[in-house]
Design brief:
It catalyses: ATP + H2O = ADP + phosphate + H(+). GO terms for molecular function: ATP binding; hydrolase activity; nucleic acid binding; RNA helicase activity. The chain is an alpha/beta fold and 725 residues long. Among the domains are: 251 residues, Rossmann fold (3-Layer(aba) Sandwich); 164 residues, Rossmann fold, CATH 3.40.50.300. Helix content is 26%, strand content 10%. The chain has an eight-stranded mixed β-sheet with strand order 5-12-6-11-10-7-9-8, sandwiched between helices. Strands 13-18-17-14-16-15 form a six-stranded parallel β-sheet, with helices on both faces. Strands 1-2 form a two-stranded antiparallel ribbon. Helix 18 links the parallel strand 17 and strand 18. The protein is globular and about 60 Å long. The structure holds adenosine-5'-triphosphate. Adenosine-5'-triphosphate binds next to helix 8.
């Protein structure tokens, strides 16, 4: 089977640009292997692909203070149902006008996009350097960071995107020929093996390239034609097809300072305590209030202290004792509120208590814990957290994910593996290759569980739990975490969990983080770019993520911003893994303050000091919106989210958006309320687009009618998955 969301099934010659500095760096080694280092170390702790943000910085502290919003609300510690005062949202209709200064810009300066998703316009005053770099009409290659960002950052731009008219679109095949020619001479220099081909994002047929594809996800076949390809038709495990992926991610730094580097909690961290928590299910153990109460071993406590954790977040207060008590758990808590540690710490505590044998080299490893998550960067992040908290213990965490050399994954595993962090496709591959046995599994964790169980990954997860050797749900502990949990997905999840699982809801299930100041602007399609530039110029150098709906648009907008001399990089499923990690690194470490991303970057990524999220395109579901804006305002820090609402295409989101804004006590523009009312359907129970999140544990029966009068939520529309592959 294939890999995870990030896996692009896209023609090799349509992969994205490689920034100049990357090329320079890679080409300095004979095979670029100064970057693609083999995992030579035998250290048990030294494997793992990529870097993490290691800066110690004070949190972003500007923005609104919601200090008094939750006043009087408090956690209770009932065993079965613990309620506080959160979520007393205003019903919509009672909001005034937004004072936004960005209301509905005009269309001047608009530069019309082709409706052709391929966006491969050949030329119009645009030429490209041999390496695919963007040149403007004056033939002057952009310099500095702009040059880097602009280097062919728009895939279609290799054939010339820029100001091309919609009628000038290249046929995808032609585009690929062009780009193939351009990149043919470049790629060998990047190869770790000298085979001249490092592309991890090849279209559908590659052994590791295509990876997992959910139903209806876009695939561009070798012939260059888009096609819809089900997971059964190809994917990562088809080793015989296509060129091998050779990318070996660099190991993360191993010094203690780097391992424990963290950013500061923000001014609103203490306000987490005022959020309502509801625990449902029978015989829930009481919450703990301090780390000491968890009674963890000394090494774990030391690691917690070194990580800078002094106080539990609500999801940790409730989840840790539940997991320590051996219960299955479905937990839903707002973005950036510490769900990762909420499952890692008790699992590690159990492992330490049970005295697992130190891992050692073995051809077949039998980990005690498997953690799956939907994107490569997210599993890598979870791995780094696991490595941090298991520091100084004999527990060995390993990460494997698609887009990297399979042999590298195997080498990491055979050195010893207690906790395996994996994307689904690579995990299934490794299981198929009998490098991982499942008999010892005691903990199965689904992070971003609603995503892991939806129609994209659900079948893969079902396969996982039915793999030979996998202990039955009665025999293992299954833990699910997310910030959103649509009802339908909750029902599916029950199949994975013991019937007496507990459900923890911190705040409103699916609610947005209140530390994010949300603004919705009415901006028509043709005014978006101008508005974006205006906003980014106002923002200055503050770290900003710009979400767009498609991979191609991500490149397009990134290139456009580079033209505007705004240092930008991009991340999406069509980029090679090395490029994605480079882009994320450039963003994390401040080389590029703007990251244009598809929804692949919407979930889980914990990047320090992201101060703004801009939804250039609104996503098609409200849950996706909640995850996207959750890239800012993390861990008690404040952030801002600005969303462009296009009357032509976003009306379906008006109702749930008003609901989310209201619940998070944000201003709701009058025009948005009007649209919400005009599109209001009594008894509305959700559609595949623009649905409203569930508000309770589904075992309680019908979901609670929320303040806006809607009730249910559904799995993401398959169409949305374009940006996830
Ligand atoms: N108790 C704590 N004290 C201080 N920092 C914490 C604590 N718990 C978590 N953090 C930090 O908060 C940040 C966000 O945590 P994490 O990534 O686990 O959030 P999350 O709830 O999983 O978010 P998302 O829903 O976006 O995946 C991380 O940098 C983490 O190290």
């Amino acid at each position: 089977m294939g890999d995870e969301d990030w896996e692009a099934e896209i023609n090799p010659h349509m992969s994205s640009y490689v920034p100049i500095f990357e090329k320079d760096r890679y080409s300095s080694g004979e095979n670029g292997d100064n970057f693609n280092r083999a995992p030579a170390s035998s250290s048990e702790m030294d494997d793992g692909p990529s870097r993490r943000d290691h800066f110690m910085k004070s949190g972003f502290a500007s923005g609104r203070n919601f200090g008094n919003r939750d006043a009087g609300e408090s956690n209770k510690r009932d065993n079965t149902s613990t309620m506080g005062g959160f979520g007393v949202g205003k019903s919509f209709g009672n909001r005034g006008f937004s004072n936004s200064k960005f209301e509905d810009g005009d269309s001047s300066g608009f530069w019309r996009e082709s409706s052709n998703d391929c966006e491969d316009n050949p030329t119009r005053n645009r030429g490209f350097s041999k390496r695919g770099g963007y040149r403007d009409g004056n033939n002057s290659e952009a310099s500095g960071p702009y040059r880097r960002g602009g280097r062919g950052s728009f895939r279609g731009c290799r054939g010339g995107f820029g100001l091309g008219s919609p009628n000038n679109d290249l046929d995808p095949d032609e585009c690929m020929q062009r780009t193939g020619g351009l990149f043919g001479s470049r790629r060998p220099a990047l190869s770790g093996t000298g085979n001249g081909d490092t592309s991890q994002s090849r279209s559908g047929s590659g052994s590791e390239r295509g990876g997992y594809k959910g139903l209806n996800e876009e695939v561009i076949t070798d012939s260059g034609k888009n096609s819809w390809k089900s997971e059964a038709e190809g994917g990562e495990s088809s080793d015989t097809q296509g060129p091998k992926v050779t990318y070996i991610p660099p190991p993360p730094p191993e010094d203690e300072d780097s391992i424990f580097a963290h950013y500061q909690t923000g001014i609103n961290f203490d306000k987490y305590d005022t959020i309502l928590v509801e625990v449902s299910g029978h015989d829930a153990p009481p919450a703990i209030l301090t780390f000491e109460e968890a009674n963890l071993c000394q090494t774990l406590n030391n690691n917690i202290a070194k990580a800078g954790y002094t106080k539990l977040t609500p999801v940790q207060k409730y989840s840790i004792p539940i997991i320590l008590a051996g219960r299955d758990l479905m937990a839903c808590a707002q973005t950036g509120s510490g769900k990762t540690a909420a499952f890692l710490l008790p699992i590690l505590a159990h492992m330490m208590r049970d005295g697992i044998t130190a891992s050692r080299f073995k051809e077949l490893q039998e980990p005690e814990c498997i953690i799956v998550a939907p994107t490569r960067e997210l599993v890598n992040q979870i791995y780094l957290e696991a490595r941090k908290f298991s520091f100084g213990t004999c527990v060995r965490a390993v990460v494997i994910y698609g887009g990297t050399q399979l042999g590298h994954s195997i080498r990491q595993i055979v050195q010893g593996c207690n906790i395996l962090c994996a994307t689904p496709g690579r995990l299934m591959d490794i299981i198929g290759k009998e490098k991982i046995g499942l008999k010892q599994i005691k903990y199965l964790v689904l992070d971003e569980a609603d995503r892991m169980l939806d129609m994209g990954f659900g079948p893969e997860m079902k396969k996982l739990i039915s793999c030979p050797g996998m202990p039955s749900k009665e025999q293992r502990q299954t833990l699910m975490f997310s910030a959103t949990f649509p009802e339908e997905i909750q029902r599916l999840a029950a199949e994975f969990l013991k019937s007496n699982y507990l459900f923890v809801a911190v705040g409103q299930v699916g609610g947005a983080c209140r530390d994010v100041q949300q603004t919705v602007l009415q901006v028509g399609q043709f005014s978006k770019r101008e508005k974006l530039v205006e906003i980014l110029r106002n923002i200055g150098d503050e770290r900003t993520m710009v979400f767009v709906e498609t991979k191609k648009k991500a490149d397009f907008i990134a290139t456009f911003l580079c033209q505007e001399k705004i240092s930008t990089t991009s991340i999406h499923g069509d980029r090679e893994q090395r490029e994605r990690e480079q882009a994320l690194g450039d963003f994390r470490y401040g080389k590029c303050p703007v990251l244009v991303a598809t929804s692949v970057a919407a979930r889980g990524l914990d990047i320090e000091n992201v101060q703004h999220v801009i939804n250039f395109d609104l996503p098609s579901t409200i849950d996706e919106y909640v995850h996207r804006i959750g890239r800012t305002g993390r861990c008690g820090n404040t952030g801002r989210a600005i969303s462009f609402f296009d009357l032509e295409s976003d009306n379906h989101l008006a109702q749930p958006l008003v609901k989310v804004l209201t619940d998070a006590q944000q201003d709701v523009p009058a025009w948005l309320e009007e649209i919400a009312f005009s599109t209001y359907i009594p008894g509305f129970s959700g559609s595949t687009r623009g649905n409203v999140f569930a508000s309770v544990d589904t075992r309680k029966g019908k979901s609670t009618l929320n303040t806006a009068g809607f009730s249910s939520s559904q799995a993401p529309n398959p169409v949305d998955d374009e940006s996830w592959d």
